[in-house]
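Let us practice reading a record.
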Amino acid sequence: MRLGKSDIEIKPVGLGCWAIGGQFRDLGAEAGWGDVEDSVSLKALNIGLEMGIQLLDTANIYGAGHSEKLIGQVIKGKRDKVIVATKFGILCDEGKKCTTGHITSREDIRKSCEGSLRRLGTDYIDIFHFHLGDFEPDEAVWVRDVLEDLVKEGKIRYYGWSTPDTKRARVFAEGKHCISMEFAENVMEDNPDMRVFCRESKLSAICRTPLAMGLLTGKYNSSSVFGQGDLRGKDAPPWMNYYIDGKPNEILLNKLEAVREILTSGGRTLAQGCIAWIWGTDSNCIPIPGFKNGKQVEENLSALDYGPLKEQEVIQIRNILEKVSN
């Protein structure tokens, strides 16, 4: 598929690289996914690249820069074969492994860009996504202007906004080099307004949390417990609705069970079916499932072998979920 309005052709799936960043703290709370080993993460990234995946999605704050450093290691010697998307907007301290605030000036954006370039070991970023999803749209004009300047300087190729809101997205879409929007999209959390906006604006819809932070893989049940340092545990941030009080959301688990048979049709695993649902809903969508090991990468990327769910299957799932909700 084509990446937005560019001439870049990529496969319609990428890798979300939050979990491999390891531990860090955001506003004083755990923001990592538990223990991860760099050797395992690097092997998983290489498996993804060997399977032909180009898009690697990360952010400066994932592991307070550590995710970017790992990506920098695997793209050496193959930079032209990889599309690196990273984010800015939230400031962090690499040494203290924590976020420190939000950008407030043009210089903050430039420093964030330089920091990401250094950690990635590259002289350009393919897509620079604005990470502050609730930033005031009127104020976002100057942010967009800085990004256009960075394009002219060759520091970035394109940019986008990680936001679920079409009003904000529209501000960036007016920029010449805006290419994508990133937002949550999965079987349990559809955002048709953003999907339609991206399609009509010829922007790629990069779909984060396509597996609802692991909830849609079928690995967890109502009694699942998460290890120390896993943000899905008892101290989960207030914005998280997939896990409540350290437990998987039972309402969502029940909904998942109601549509399991359709999602796993044709021999798909549950995770592959959830990825296929996104493609079946909108062919302009690029899911970026996260991972912690190579096995997960292989399973998620192998969803390509099955393709999207059929239109009637997508409709059937919508009807079932609507009945379960009522």
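A brief commentary: The chain has a mean pLDDT of 96.
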